[in-house]
Amino acid sequence: MKNICKIFGIIMFIMVIGFTMTGCKNSTGGGGDGITYGPIELGEDPTLSSGQQVYTVSFPNNNSVLYTPYAGANLTVKAYSSDVGTITDGKLSLNLGIPSDGALAVLNSTNLNNAMHNNYNNCAASPDTVKFVRIYSFGTDAIQSSGLRRENTSVTNASFTVQEMFYFYVAEDVTISGVANTKVIDSINTTFNAFSLALKKGWNTVCETEIGGGTTATRSLSLSNPSSLKWVLEPDL
Q1: Which of 5, 12, 88 is nearest to 54 (CA)?
Q2: Average pLDDT by consecutive 10-residue portion of the chain (237 residues)?
Q3: Is 61 domain-assigned?
Q4: 163: helix, coil or strand?
Q5: Which residue, 48, 120, 122, 228, could crosslink 178 as a Cys pair with Cβ 3.0–4.6 Å?
Q6: DSSP codes of every residue in 9-35
Q7: What is the four-CA torsion angle of 183, 66, 50, 81, rounded to 10 degrees?
Q8: How many domains, the chain?
Q9: Is there a domain that residue 12 lies in?
Q10: Residues 42-55, buried b or exposed e (16+ Cβ, 10 A)?
């Protein structure tokens, strides 16, 4: 998200404000927007990908996003100091596994604020003694990449929509929440909507949707797993 915002902060500054309101659904199955949705609660030891295509992303002009199938070297994918997958001939195999206790932290307000990039006010968990780990970007041994993420970006005239996936592991059922906040990020006045999400023991999918145009944007969190998201090796900007 941060790298994409840097690009769009430059592009959108000179464009007329406009919005295309689309977002995450809070259900599985098919949506009225034509997008299908996978499971939200993934369990203890989920396989996230068995041969899905990996892409790189570029922005040829102000009104387009280009996803190109990755055709580079085979890579190892890492999370919480462990090897969790591989990219072979451009295809991803990834199994999250059960994190060791040493990879987990207590889900108190400080750690939750950090996990949410300090974008929301008064982040809290109930109960606040549950252990957790959050994955936003998977590490790889690619030299010129900031990581592997699951995302989708679309641009229409003077607006853009960015969706990205957070993977939350919690050792027990817990509800996390945060109060709305507004920040300026890369010259974009960004509103972060309040959230309250009930996470189940094991891995959960949390989708962040950013909708923006001109010099404003809004970000929202939901329990959602849209199939339209792609596995993307982000450029190291």
Answers
A1: 88
A2: 44 30 38 66 94 92 87 92 93 94 95 94 96 94 82 88 96 98 93 98 97 94 95 81
A3: no
A4: strand
A5: 120
A6: HHHHHTS----------SSSEE-TTS-
A7: -40
A8: 1
A9: yes
A10: beeebebbeeeebb
